[in-house]
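Question: Now follow the chain.
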Amino acid sequence: MNGPIEIRGFQQPIEVDIAPRKPEFRTPATEDSFSDMLSRAIGSVDQAMKTSEQGIQDFAAGRTENVHDVMINMQKAQLSFQLMVEIRNKAIEAYQEISRMQI
């Protein structure tokens, strides 16, 4: 079965493409360095924190009445920050374990 499949029974038919795809292999020249990846991840957490803070300020000032979006943004920021802290803790733990290894 190559090509799209049409699923009926809904208001509008849904087309799903299940054709096999050739895997994409990345060469070292196209891969990002670890520091680039880490910088983007930290920037993403920072952006989530700023978005959350701006939403809180807008809600407090009465510029928005959608408390649900404010709470969702706050939870996203909190979870992304907690994940970043846990990754940092695991990296420190791994470094300490490697430094204790006998050569």
